[in-house]
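User: what does the whole thing look like in 3D?
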Amino acid sequence: MPAVVKKFSPKTLGHSLRAGVSACAVALLLVSCQGADTPATSSTSSPATNKIAEPAGLASPQRLRLMSAEQYTNTLAGIFGPDLKFDTRFPPLVRTDGLLGNGASSAGVSEAQLEQYQRTASLVAAEVTNPTHRTFLIPCQPADETAADAACASKFLGSVGRLLYRHPLPQDQLAPLVKDAGEVATRFKDFYSGISYVLEGMLMSPEMLLIAEVAEPDAKTPGGQQLAAYSLATRLSLFLWNAGPDSRLLDAAEHGELKTPEGRARVVDMMLASPRLEAGVRAFFDDMFGFDDFATLSKDPETYPFFTGATAADAREQTLRTVVDHVINQNADYRDLFTTRKTFMSTALAPVYGVPTGTGWTPYEFPADSPRVGLLSQVSFLAVHSHPGRSSPTRRGKALREILLCQIVPRPPANVDFSAVENPKSTIKTQRERVAAHLTNPVCAGCHKITDPIGLALENFDGAGRFRTTERGEAIDASGSLDGHEFKDAVGLAKALYDAPQLTSCLVERTASYGLGGSLSDQTKPLLPYLSQRFASEGYRFKSLLRDIALSTAFSEVAKGGTEVRAALNSSTPSANK
Amino acid sequence: MRTHFSMMAAAAALIFGVSAHAEGVTNRTIGYVLTNKSWATYQTPDGKAECPKGFNDGPREQFKALFPESGKKRTLAETQFAREADVWFPSETEPLGADGKPLPYIDVSGKTALGMNLDGKVGPNDFTSPEGEPGIDNQLYRAVGCATGFRGPEGAYTFFQNDYMQRYIFNRILIEITDVDDLVNDNDVTVTTYRGLNPLLTSANGKDFIPGGTQRADERWGKRYIHSFKGKIVNGVLTTEPGVTKIPYADTFDTNVDLTLMQARFKLKLTPTSAEGLIGTYVDLKEWHHHFAVNWTSHHASYGQLSVPSITRAMARLADAYPDPATGKNTAISAALAMKFSQAYIVHTDPKKKAVASAQKKNQVADAQ
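Assistant: Here's the predicted 3D structure for the full assembly of 947 residues, as structure tokens:
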């Protein structure tokens, strides 16, 4: 293990655990680049696309990232199985350049967060070592359950530690852990108390929670640097599986497989074929679509009596199921997500759509003459980007531009006068009339011209996503426009969005930054045209895009010169972002 | 045309886009799920019109009347056990109270009742509907209308039979109207009853039942609840020809029973989102008593002031149909169920094996006279 990360051993007793965490965090503040020479990597092209070459000299920033709650959960589920009962109420990350995932590379850890990590770690350690789970999660039995057993402790902690820390534990790191487990076992006359104690410390240690990428010189590029094998394995795993690497991936790193183009391609293809890809794809789109907004979504029950908490949860799930089925199972064109009639239906959602359904989740296809087409007409988009009691052409238009086209819509000025549109005694009947007021004020018109004509095309769907033809007795005019393309309804909007070149370039940008672990640097941005070209040549297949990114040189090469990566473990500064 | 499809076919239909619009009739079919039911009782605010003599006593009051605290020693067998036995095997006459007189029981004496003219006649004991229709046959109302538990919506029996129906799935009742060309006027439609398998769809505030839910028809275990009726819709009101049907009828958990509705016929005001009205019917005295005694313990009966034996005796006294060939005593009583339905999409599971019991047993009409 060529890393310079200072090895951390959870201290044995008392307050030393927290002290150990802080000490290790300090050690992680600066991560330099060194390691054994290994061959450079390059992407593997299919015959149809091998004429498109990745620009030379691209390298991504070397990152220090905070593990998300979902990554933590997925990692533990991969190690211990999905039946462990614990919760990971980790604080949310800060959305950066459109993704929460980007915020992971500029996150801090406060004392309060540490408490939550400790709580989760304690629950997990207790679950793993309880009589129900220990018999199959701990691969050996102590000679005497009331005493220490260094051999068994070493076997378990060594194997689990490799998966938790994402690299094998050298002897000088493993031995203190075994020693700690032995001391606690002796004190409490219980082997499993010792294991639980040490495991709790490992589960909240910086080596677990902070993903510190380690670089090493790239022999093929004089002066260049590349991710060390275990760091590359971790980056791949977080990108494609939203979890730490499994044993097979670590084996590939250990045996140098990731350092050859053929070996890396073989591993990436294995990962893309794995069922774990679904978790990775779900996590990415959940992040990109801003579905964390569901946590605060509420609708007026008097206005939308059919919209319940179950409806909201299923709306999120419906879109994710649609996406996963489309881009993984069907391996279909990404753009078709916005024109497809196919989705999935649940009992909680069916009343909103006004359709019958089966038991549980059922495949469903809207008829060809249905006003529902694509993700924009799903409840997730329509309800999240609306007010609690009414629809919002502005919010919907803004969301489309920012989430799907990667454009930035400026915030309204601080002194904006909302009275014209919020007067409850207003005689305004339709949202079209309401937002027309925006256009009469030059201060408002600048931005509303780029949002409202989009959102107005979705006015046949109310604030909860239910279809309607009238609003307050007035027939709804759902015509609109997107960047010069005019249409008469949501179906037309879907087609215009399908044809918008930014739709695919935005996905490329978001996916690339997600894969590279943070916002794209100027050094990395030249990667985007290359990826977009390949994406187009591959028929906009998302799995191909994932593969291209994972096999790109920029994915494994890191910026030379010992890029500093910083993590703020400042107990007095809850969100000490860079 | 009815659209029956198996679960596989259902999935395929959903995938390939069977048309299903937001509300109303789809493929000439509309379904409804029962959300509220009660034995129809005509009520005035103070009850003076229908129950001028007041309301009936329940088990506690009757016990006090039968066994006043006079210092007399009585055994359990003479008191509690005797009363419990009377619940299950009611005597033909009311027991004598401490005053030597039979326990009083108050029938409805008003002239107005909800219900339908089941026998096509206007008899001396018949009621008149609130709309003025004479010949209303609802002697069950005469028997129970002055028992507070049957009054709505606060009556304990009325409240709980709805509460359990709404909370538990066993007695989910569906009606599906097929061959519908017009939900306002259509002279030939078919109404089929099913047991449903899904919870009711409630509003976000949890208080109201809303249309648009999906109900799977139980065509495997619930075949005995599947019955068809021919009917017509006039000015938005559905009426059907009489037929026999069976409905699941549980008023408390784990007390599932079936209730046979003889010569049942619907009269429901239809909208695309709801159906509300009556089922006029005859109910068998023994079955009704069994259902009532099983569902309603002395504990519940006490709170609702419902004396199972006294009500049973009153029903036997007022029974007006299906005379026993041997004794000449009527074995059934006219009744009406007030019902509210919400529109629901009914998904069928087994088109080939479905067994629709014929509801067109017109000979039963003759039997009842």
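In plain terms: Chain A touches chain B through 30 residues (CB under 8 Å). The longest strand of chain A covers residues 342-345.
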